[in-house]
Amino acid sequence: MTGEAMRRRDVLTLLGGAAAASSIRPRTAHAQQRMPVIGFLHLISAEASANELVACRHGLKQAGYVEGENVAFEHRSADNQPDRLPALAADLVRRRVAVIVPYTAPGILAAKAATTTIPIVFNIGEDPVRHGLVASLARPGGNLTGVNFLVLEVTAKRLELLRQLVPAAARVAVLVSPANAAITETTLEEVEPAARALGLQIQVFKADTSGELDAVFATLARERPDALFVGTGPFFTSRRVQLAHWATRAAIPATFGNRLYAEAGGLMSYGASLADAWRQVGLYIGRILKGTTPADLPVVQSTKLELVINHQTARILGLTVPPTLLAIADEVIE
């Protein structure tokens, strides 16, 4: 082969390689673009929702989806400022995510206002029909569906269990988060008659920031209530270690809404299994990604409840846990 022929062969080889590379790149980019994106709309932050995300990933994996392999996550966080949620929801819509997963009622309402076409999968403790999120539990009727876990329905039971553990309690402080307005309002509607039925006096305290929590703690240290009932919400969950440790240091028996508090050192928790509820959210996301429409997915009512008692904290507080409570506890932390 002549030198000229060899040079021509080398040029053709290079051109052929470049053409092959150019034909591969668009397909790779196209494959990346086709990976569905799930948009999470947080009232606090993704970090504050870490446990929920773990459970959601578990449900997604059961449905055949793994983050980074065949599905991607996008997070938008409002830093506990509900008025930021509408703009963040609109940003996810512009991003053209495949599914939106909002936290709390304000986030769900913001997502609902932002789109009527992108599927929205929620996890809410309040009644989604009452809040106008779906037409009915069996037939959601729009682009929203999800999980309704029990929170407010167990308020009276939480007080009753607290009374069993602290039979001498007469004055109970109730701590709520105004930023989560809907659930706070309904919590107070439930807790007041439940307290009257048990002969308990309640005093309501409100906090949405660390500074406000410090102020509440200072007041409680002076007034020394017999027990503390902590409401539900992402802000309190994100501060669960602070809440649990403060109550123990102040020697005030406290009851919380889910097991994360008891695991962090809180005395007692009773409420829905959030891990199970968020796993079901992941399963629903997976079904939607496979083509099922939200209107065809009835709202799941997650009724799995857990009573968790931190026996070590009880001993620190000088409390003897009645055998009847130990017998019905789903877990006793030693």
Task: Tell me what you see in this structure.
With 334 residues, the chain is an alpha/beta fold. The protein folds into 2 domains: 36-150 and 274-303, 3-Layer(aba) Sandwich (Rossmann fold); 152-272 and 306-333, 3-Layer(aba) Sandwich (Rossmann fold). It has 13 helices and 13 strands. The protein has helices spanning 3-34, 50-62, 85-94, 104-114, 155-165, 181-197, 210-223, 234-238, 240-249, 259-263, 274-289, 311-316, 323-328, and strands at residues 37-42, 72-77, 99-102, 120-124, 144-149, 171-176, 201-206, 227-230, 254-256, 268-272, 300-302, 305-310, 331-333. The strands form 3 sheets. It has a 7-stranded mixed beta sheet with strand order 7-6-8-9-10-12-13, with helices on both faces. A 3-stranded parallel beta sheet has the order 2-1-3, sandwiched between helices. A 3-stranded parallel beta sheet has the order 4-5-11, with helices on both faces. Helix 10 links the parallel strand 9 (254-256) and strand 10. It starts with a helix and ends with a strand. The model is unreliable at 2-32 (pLDDT under 50).
Keywords:
Rossmann fold; 13 helices; seven-stranded mixed sheet; three-stranded parallel sheet; disordered N terminus; 2 domains; about 325 residues
Summarize this, please?
This protein has 334 residues and is of the alpha/beta class.
List the topology elements.
Layout: H1 3-34, E1 37-42, H2 50-62, E2 72-77, H3 85-94, E3 99-102, H4 104-114, E4 120-124, E5 144-149, H5 155-165, E6 171-176, H6 181-197, E7 201-206, H7 210-223, E8 227-230, H8 234-238, H9 240-249, E9 254-256, H10 259-263, E10 268-272, H11 274-289, E11 300-302, E12 305-310, H12 311-316, H13 323-328, E13 331-333
Parallel strand pairs: 1-2, 1-3, 4-5, 5-11, 6-7, 6-8, 8-9, 9-10, 12-13
Antiparallel strand pairs: 10-12
